[in-house]
Amino acid sequence: MRNRLQKKVPLVASLVMPIRLKVTLTSVLIATVVAVVASITFFYAIKNITQKTFTTNLEALQTEIEQILVSDMVSIDNTARHIIQSASVFNYLSNGSLPSEYDEYELFSLKSAMGKDISRQLFFNPAFESGLIQIVRLFLEKDIIITQTKKATEQNLNVSSDISTYQYLQESGNTGRQVFVNEGRLSFAYPISSLSGVRKPTALIIGCNVDQFKHRYDALVESFSSAVYAVYDQNGLMLFSYGDLGSISQNYKVKTNKLSNGFISTIAVSNKELTGKVSDITFKYLLFFLALMPIPLLAAFFMTRRMRFFAENFIKHIKRVGEGDFAVTLPVYGDDELDEIGKAFNTMTGKINSLVEEVYKKQFLIQQMKIQLLQNQMNPHFLFNVLFSMSTRAKMNRDETLYQMTVLLSKFLRTNIASNDSMMVPIKSEMDYVDTYLNIQAMRFGDRLAYEWQIPRELMDCYCPRLSIQPLVENSVMHGIEPLTRTGHIVISVSDEKDFIIVTVEDDGVGFDMSLSEDRKDGRGNHIALDNLRQRLRLLYGDECTLRMESAVGMGCTASFRIPKQREEQKDVIPNIIG
């Protein structure tokens, strides 16, 4: 028995490890466990943060695509609206004659006028110039078509499909814009209602190249290598797409939104794109750490303290990353192995920081815009506060003239600065603004300025362009009445002429020579305001409703413009012709 025990002692003794080896192995084991736990924590922390960043970028991408799509649709709808509102088309819709009732010359003249109006509307049209709008066809009847394209060789492009679309519109009786996909082209069809009560089979078809549509969005989607997107109309008809729709599975993150114009936008991105890079970097990190394990245990023993410091520092940095501090980096330790780990860690945090910074920059730019808007509002508020203080001081000093002038000036500026959703205002509102201006000038000129209105009460609720009468009155005051040494008179009148009203501003001031060059026909140097009014009248009503000036030296000046009569319930009739 004793011999057996003696034989076993050396075996047991051989299994007893030195304390240094135990410490070394324990340190290595602890370091291994800490590194693995830290890596797992790091992986899930980065995954969660990247998930949020990924979702934010995906939503931002979809929002940007939708904004461009809505903008394109608005541009196409506006093009259709402007064409239908053009003079020749509007006149055709307003009369009661059908195309079959026109003789050959009248029909030729009608088509020529419409062709010129369509060309005018497409001139400098961004959608047409960019190639988004490829062809425009106005159907008066099946065989009476006015076509406009950028290239003459495209005049007969897709004629048969457009005729089929036109026939479908007439047979279905549907109203409002409708979208068709024919032969690689998007067709936006607009049934047009007659204004005369006589049913006219009129329709406008705007053809757009599908590839041109897609090209505007492909560059955005390419930021996601696995992205797939598609756009559908209200009825579920797919208009165009990017990528392989059949590849979408449960491993895809899908976002679907309904746009303000009724279209539906869908975008899908593979989840592998989210987790792939994080998993790959983390896996490489683990492999690299395991490669360090064969290092001699003796070296591990001497590096115990250093490894402990590294582990603690590494965990601290990972926690900071988990708290959202992506700018954190590991220092240089002076050892190749530890520095490689630090480099891999710094590379990962740097890439994540770049992704997060993109979102932050966008939010910062939005915040800057909001701050700029608030700053832009400070100056008017400051000006009104100063005027209020001046009026209060004048009232306290019993200076009634100064008090009235500051009150009127404040009212005048407030009306001029205040935003207005509509370009049109009632004549009564415009005359309130003019009256405030004339009251201010009357306090300045005294008896040298006299003025009166001649406006029938029933015309006061008619609409006119905002700030259209005041520039004419200002022109008379500053350049007609001011040079006089006697009393000058200004007469503002509005007269009724069937479906039109005529606004006239007449003065008996110094007048001017009508033989002056065209660029000085306002005669007084008030170019900016009057040129602005001319352009607005021309854009709103066409060349027939432009500003007219009549004057002679010493005989005063008469300025007038003629516009359609529009009351509150009629002011939107023209924009609503479509459908």
UniProtKB/TrEMBL annotation:
GO terms under cellular component: membrane
Domain of life: Bacteria
InterPro entries per record: Bact_2-comp_sensor_kinase, HAMP_dom, HATPase_C_sf, HATPase_dom, Sig_transdc_His_kin_internal
Matches recorded under Gene3D superfamilies: 6.10.340.10, Histidine kinase-like ATPase, C-terminal domain
Name assigned to this protein: Putative regulator of cell autolysis
Coiled-coil ranges (or none): none
UniProt keyword terms in alphabetical order: Kinase, Membrane, Phosphoprotein, Transferase, Transmembrane, Transmembrane helix
Entries under PROSITE patterns matching the protein: HAMP
Record's subcellular location: Membrane
Keyword Membrane in record: yes
Residue spans crossing the bilayer: 21-46, 285-303
SMART domains found in the cross-reference section: HAMP, HATPase_c
Entry annotated with the keyword Secreted: no
GO molecular function, one term: phosphorelay sensor kinase activity
Residues annotated as domain HAMP: 305-357
Organism: Sphaerochaeta pleomorpha (strain ATCC BAA-1885 / DSM 22778 / Grapes)
